[in-house]
Amino acid sequence: MESMDVREKMIYDGDPGHDDVMAILLAAGNPRIDLLGVTTVAGNAPLEMTTRNALITMDMIGADIPVAAGCSGPLVKPLYTAPFVHGESGLDGAKLFEPKRKPIQKHACDFLIDTLMESEGDISIVAAGPLTNVALALRREPAIANKIKQLVIMGGGRFGNITPAAEFNIWSDAEAARILFESEIPKVMCGLDLTYQAVATPEVMERIRAIHSPVSEFVNDFMTFYNNNSKRAGKNGAPVNDACCVAYLIDKAVFTTRHLRVDIETKGEFTYGMTCIDVFRMNSGRELKEPNVYVGDKLNFELFWNLMISSIASLG
Ligand code: RIB
Ligand code: CA
Fold first, then answer.
1. I need a surface site. Which of 61, 142, 220, 265 has the fewest CB within 10 A?
2. In the predicted model, is pLDDT for residue 284 greater than 70?
3. Pair 200, 223: CB distance under 8 Å
């Protein structure tokens, strides 16, 4: 049982992004988390936008947490952004402004490597965008594999949201995902099966609005856009996918996990980017591969939103 007074050190790698911003707010507003930095990658929007959105978030909460810009595209395939979900800015709905804060003058991969190599091996990485930065950092300095306490990935699942088979983060750079899923780094995967349970319902939105603070207004603005966009896509509200990863670092009771084998498809015409999850431990006469990922299963909805809302309230 982890001691409750030890803060969980983490670096957030993502593509802000409505749900990335919620994850960053959850981390920055919870006393159990020591957010050491945010590294940005192209994904929901081009790198310039995702980095700007991270800096806007830091301005909004008055936090001097380093933001390091990373890769502007995947390892192999071309960049494919998601303005149909997040808008051209990557954070449509929010009252955006030119941020006062600037990114640090260090590439995200170097920030990850330097911070991890100087550490005691007690830093968790939340990766909630295309996995290009983290995979490239591992290629550049393989020794970080022994320095990452755990890699909590938002990605994958047993269904897709960008193709029938694949989830956006994995699909955006399946080669990067394969490097990490085949590594020995301890991994937790928050796939769509889990994260689609973390929907911002009208009742949740009412609780956020009732906080009546500049940060809650910021959240209400961009989450209203994100919710409406999700409804247009036939969903009953927006899943705050990325925040599930941070919630797990705060309290492991926020969702159950299953230790399963997960392999990444990088060749399929219809299945590129699929997380092939061996749910039933099938061997079908072939070599039975050992489980390599703790896969998120059932969300404690009330605990998740209590954590999320108390973080927003604490940030003023
Ligand atoms: O598929 C959802 C994921 O892709 C989320 O992390 C979202 O922010 C986008 O990066
Ligand atoms: Ca994301």
1. 142
2. no
3. yes
Q: Which DSSP helix (H) or strand (E) runs through 180?
A: helix 174-181
pLDDT digits over 63-82, tens only?
A: 999 999 999 999 999 999 99
For the chain, give the number of residues: 316
Ligand at shortest distance from the CA of 43: 1
Structure tokens at 287: 């070599």
The reply to whether ligand 1 has any atom less than 6 angstroms from the CB of 24 is no
> How many alpha carbons fall within 13 Å on the CB side of residue 264?
24
Model confidence pTM above 0.90: yes
Asked if 23 and 14 count as a contact pair (C-beta separation under 8 A), the reply is yes
Contacting residues for 269 by C-beta, under 8 A, at least 6 apart: none
* HSE toward the beta carbon, residue 97, CA cutoff 13 A: 10
Report every protein residue that has its C-beta within 5 angstroms of ion ligand 2: 14-15, 17, 20, 128-129, 242
Is the predicted pLDDT of residue 1 greater than 70, yes or no? no
DSSP 199: B
Separation of alpha carbons 188 and 275, rounded Å: 13
- Of 260, 244, 251, give the one whose Cα is nearest residue 292: 260
Q: How far is the CA of 162 from the centre of ligand 2 (A)?
A: 13
